[in-house]
Amino acid sequence: EVQLVESGGGSVQAGGSLRLSCAASGFTFDDYAIGWFRQSPGKEREGVSCIGPSDGITYYADSVKGRFTVSIDNAKNTVYLQMNSLKPEDTAVYYCAADWGPSCHLTTWYHTQGVYDYWGQGTQVSVSS
């Protein structure tokens, strides 16, 4: 059974940090790029970051560049999203997703439909001002 399980969410004040984890099981981890997405109430889901487990190439949304860092631990089949300098507008449910293919695609990694094969259930991040 394929599973993506996010953890590490919580409540922090603006300027704080959190590290999210995405633990994968049930598929060959090296064959899938992992994307991070988020969705705030009343807003559409948006792409945050992506990492390819084979080449380590990463992409970020402009809104998080310089503040968020995605990394991978192949031995643990886990992808991390380190979030620093958090802002109230980062408040959202954060999801990880798996896309077959060892690399993130430059023009589609942030697509919320038609790209990713598996999705996690999400973890809540709340940032207060």
Q: Number of helical segments?
A: 0
Which range best describes the helical content: under 10%, 10-25%, 25-40%, 40-55%, 55-70% or over 70%?
under 10%
Estimated share of beta-strand residues: over 45%
Q: Averaged pLDDT, please?
A: 95
Shape: globular
**What about the largest sheet?**
7 strands, mixed
Structural class: mainly beta
| Rg computed from alpha carbons, rounded to a whole number of angstroms | 13 Å
Low-confidence stretches: none
Roughly how many Å apart are the termini? 40 Å
Based on the structure, what is the oligomeric state of the protein chains?
A: single chain
Total strand segments:
11
Q: What series of H and E elements makes up the topology?
A: EEEEEEEEEEE
Question: Overview of this structure, please?
Answer:
The protein has strands at 3-7, 10-13, 18-25, 32-39, 46-51, 58-60, 68-73, 78-83, 92-100, 118-119, 123-128. The strands form two sheets. Strands 2, 4, 5, 6, 9, 10 and 11 form a seven-stranded mixed beta sheet that branches. The N and C termini lie far apart (40 Å). Helices cover 0% and strands 49% of the residues. The chain is mostly beta strands and 129 residues long. The radius of gyration is 13 Å and the shape is globular.
Give a topology summary.
Layout: E1 3-7, E2 10-13, E3 18-25, E4 32-39, E5 46-51, E6 58-60, E7 68-73, E8 78-83, E9 92-100, E10 118-119, E11 123-128
Parallel strand pairs: 2-11
Antiparallel strand pairs: 1-3, 3-8, 4-5, 4-9, 5-6, 7-8, 9-10, 9-11
